[in-house]
Amino acid sequence: MSSAQAPHPVLRGPVPLSHLLLRRFIQTGNRVIDATCGNGKDTLLLAELVGESGHVWAFDIQQEALDRTAQRLADQNLLQRVSLLHAGHERLQELLEPPLQAIIFNLGWLPGAPREIATSTATTLTALEASLHLLAPAGLLLITCYPGHAGGDQEATAVQEWAASLSPRSYFVWRMGQLNVTSDAPFCLLIQDGRPSDVR
């Protein structure tokens, strides 16, 4: 491998896989949502991908998460590309309008914070349903589920059942996760709006 070549991404767990997909699909000028910004790693990637002409809206119910995300963005001089919203993701449709090219969810809790504050099945399902109304044609909805913690198994099951119920004529639904891990390991769901991207 020459020194000019970028190293291959290490696909350990679903988050690097979701980032690989985002790098393939998100383009300069896109409008996207990070529905659970957490420590801001996903938000930062989205801000890099949408460029100066695009925009990211990042949601979280914890001010600590928004502060961490703001600092990460400021360190890279990308804060101006992002609107940080102190709100639950169940308010997506109330606060934003279509079209959005991608919406991502990284479920669970804020790393390093008390685990009592975590995403819940009811609000997550409300947010996912709202996301379908916001997606642009051929837009992506990416959801990382964590069934290995208390309450996470019920949420992951409910989200997977919801995704499986979507019409195959309207949405393309994929489940991606490592096979050589425990049965409660995290996994990623990808849902693509089935309308061709030239439809407005």
Separate helix tally:
6
Main sheet: strands, sense, barrel = 7 strands, mixed
Label the structural class: alpha/beta
Q: Work out the oligomeric state of the chains in this entry.
A: single chain
* Gyration radius, rounded: 16 Å
- Please state the overall shape, judged from the principal axes of the Cα atoms: globular
Count all strands and give the number: 7
Arithmetic mean pLDDT? 91
- H/E series, N to C? HEHEHEHEHEHEE
Q: Strand order within the widest sheet?
A: 3-2-1-4-5-7-6
Helix share of residues? Answer: 25-40%
Strand fraction band? 15-25%
- End-to-end separation: 43 Å
**pLDDT under 50 segments (min length 5)?**
none
Task: Please give a structural write-up.
The chain is α/β, with parallel strands linked by helices and 200 residues long. The chain has a domain of 34 residues. Helix content is 33%, strand content 23%. It has six helices and seven strands; from the N terminus they run H-E-H-E-H-E-H-E-H-E-H-E-E. Strands 3-2-1-4-5-7-6 form a seven-stranded mixed β-sheet, sandwiched between helices. Helix 5 links the parallel strand 4 and strand 5. Helix 5 packs parallel to helix 6. The chain is globular and about 40 Å long. The N and C termini lie far apart (43 Å). The mean pLDDT is 91.
